[in-house]
Amino acid sequence: MNRDEIFSKIQEVLVDALGVDDDEVTPEAVLTADLGAESIDFLDISFKLEQAFGFKIAQGELFPDNAAQNPDYVKDGLVTDKGLAELKDKMPHVDFAGFEADPQLSKIGKLFTVNALVSFVENKLQTANA
Question: What is the per-residue pLDDT across 6-59, written as a single tens digit (0 to 9) for each?
């Protein structure tokens, strides 16, 4: 599958999971801020991605678990260098460029874009076919 085909399938998943219109699901759209996703929706999105693409997503693989509660990763509302390194390691599908300049924990949700989902699926499919 090429990136456009992956995007198209993800667009269908998000329209179904979040009840948004397909024209709202752009590559730059943030799942929470732009598409209204809440924490419970992330489980549904993961499940629907598994169904749509035929692979398993381990807990914490797509969206990190409890990173904010680790004092080594967050201090005074900012993601530490160690926390940022851990996030980058666990989420190679996410573009951290803008976040690195201002790593406020409150802005971490903006990392979860449609583009990040496309990159995640693209990586999973490449790994499965390797």
Answer: 999 999 999 999 999 999 999 999 999 999 999 899 999 999 999 999 999 998
What is the DSSP secondary-structure string of 1-20?
--HHHHHHHHHHHHHHHH--
Burial category of 105 from C-beta neighbours within 10 Å (exposed 0-12, middle 13-18, buried 19 and up) = middle
**C-alpha span between 121 and 59 (Å, rounded):** 15
Angle at 121 between CA 101 and CA 118, to 5 degrees: 55
Which domains does the chain show, CATH number per domain?
1-58+112-130 (1.10.1200.10), 64-109 (no CATH)
Question: Taking the model in full, what pTM does it have?
Answer: 0.90
